[in-house]
Amino acid sequence: MTALPTVSIPTHEPSTAPTVDVERGASSWRALGTYVELRTTPEAVEAATYLAARVLDEVDLACSRFRDDSELMLANGAAGRAVEVSPLLVGAVRVALEAAEETDGLVDPLLGDVLCAAGYDRTFSLVPSDDPTAAALPVPAGSWPQMVVTDTTVTVPLGAALDLGATGKAFAADLVALCVVDTCDAPVLVSVGGDVRVAAPRDELQDQPVLVGHSLTDLEAGGASTLVRLGAGGLATSSVSARRWRRGGRQWHHVVDPRTGLPARGPWRTVTALGRTAAAANAATTASIVLGAAAYDWLVDHDVAARLVDHDGHVTRTPAWTASGIEETP
Amino acid sequence: MRALLSTGQRDRSRLVLTVLSGTLAAATVAGTGVATAAAAQETARTNAVKARQKAAAEAAAARAHHAALVKWAKDNPVVVTKTRPTKTVIGKPTLVKASSSGSSRVGGGSTSSSSSSSSSSSTRTTTSRPAPPPPPPPPSTGS
To answer: Looking at the domain assignment, is residue B16 inside a domain?
Structure first.
């Protein structure tokens, strides 16, 4: 009898080799299923890029929902039991839980099963753009307060699945920036899928330009954009224009409202915010997309500098954003 | 002396005797066959019943063994150790800094420190060659 050939279905997008422009201190590549951009000094760019790529590979191995050998999948597979994991996953989960607490659960790290049921069970580039199959959607349990994290273990509550899609890339940007500053002693800007962190040793930093837009595809097609100049800290953008697919006749995007278990619906197409870290900025933008019409008041109450663009292209800025003076006037 | 039977009578008697003995022999063989078949059938039926009983007993034992194994596995979880690459890239102090309390606290952040903009490459001033144009600003978009 002839053995059937083994067919392996890919679910994970491997990172690509960085392209380095030494003269201009810039590099770019793909990792964590998204784009990565790094800016530093010409002298440090090669070492910083090498280090950043290794850091992101390590984050991927710890935090990916799309590879069976990740620590996150190990913890999901043992739901209800403590699993020994690396300090990296412990750190990522702590940041995610703090974001959940800060936003009263609007940024919920336990929506993995909802996203899987909706078809987002592999790296986004491999998700079918229109799958007519009906989806049996679980109701989110809101069980993130039941997650247990110690210095060496993570326990995912039974009936839930951890997904660090919201805060994971921002945490990775923070990590890369701090690693580069500590190791290369050079100023750095890193953008991991639009979650940006700027850092420098001894506050030797000049403002860095960042182009804010709805999605990379939209920017490349000449869509609306705004140039901002960012000092030390984080900046993040969340948009319902990115990572969109159809499942069972319903239009999905990656920002899920944990109160309904469905894609967040609201007036905002894209929200950009500042924060002390990229993770803090991301918590604000994700919460704003989920909150919808109530986002502006929430952002003002929390003194967040944010810029909100609705589906018609109208821009709303919080007072803190206007006061920050980071937006270039055309 | 006159024979008891005529030649014709003798031949007929011999024929009748041959037919009778042949019939008897055939009847005997047939009877033996029927009896043997009946006995074999009865034996097969008995064996089948025994085999069914034995299989049922073995299945019950296997089920009980499986249940005992499941219970044992539940009471004695086995830790499967997976070989992973050594993690040495991210130092612990950096990791603690990145995930310390307050790292996800919203609000605050960058403010424009100067009106003059400069890219990172402008820090290189050791060459007399004109500085290359700055790299394109990195994007911040939904992703």
So the answer is: yes
Kindly state whether residue B142 falls inside one of the protein's structural domains. Answer: no
- On whether residue B126 sits in a domain, the answer given is no
Contact A189, A197 (CB under 8 A): yes
- As a whole number of angstroms, the distance between CA A31 and CA A17 comes to 9
Nearest Cβ partner for B141 among A103, A213, A281: A213
* Residues of chain B with C-beta less than 8 angstroms from the C-beta of A212: 139-141
Query: Does the distance separating the beta carbons of B94 and A179 come in below 8 Å?
Result: yes
Q: Answer whether residue B60 is part of any domain.
A: yes
Nearest CA in chain B to A200: B120
What residues of chain B lie within 8 A of the CB of A175, using their CB? 90, 94-95, 98
Closest residue in B to A274 (Cα–Cα): B109
Give me the residue label for tokens 């959940």.
A100
Contact A270, B142 (CB under 8 A): yes
Q: What is the pLDDT of residues B93-110, one digit of tens each?
A: 888 889 888 888 988 777
Q: Cα(A50)–Cα(A306) distance, rounded to whole angstroms?
A: 33
Task: Enumerate the residues of chain B whose CB falls inside 8 A of the CB of residue A223.
Answer: none
ipTM of the complex: 0.81
What is the per-residue pLDDT across A260-309, written as a single tens digit (0 to 9) for each?
Answer: 988 889 999 999 999 999 999 999 999 999 999 999 999 999 999 999 99
Check the CA dihedral A90-A94-A100-A103 and report its sign: negative
Given an 8 Å threshold on Cβ–Cβ distance, is A206 in contact with B87?
A: no
Nearest by CB: A191 against B89, B133, B140: B140
List Cα–Cα distances, A90 to A63, A86, A95, A159, in angstroms. 10, 7, 9, 20
DSSP annotation of A268: E
- Contact present, A57 and A15 (Cβ < 8 Å): yes
Å between B129 CA and nearest CA of chain A: 12
Instruction: Name the residue range of residue B26's domain.
Output: 1-77
Nearest to A80 by CA among B110, B136, B77: B77
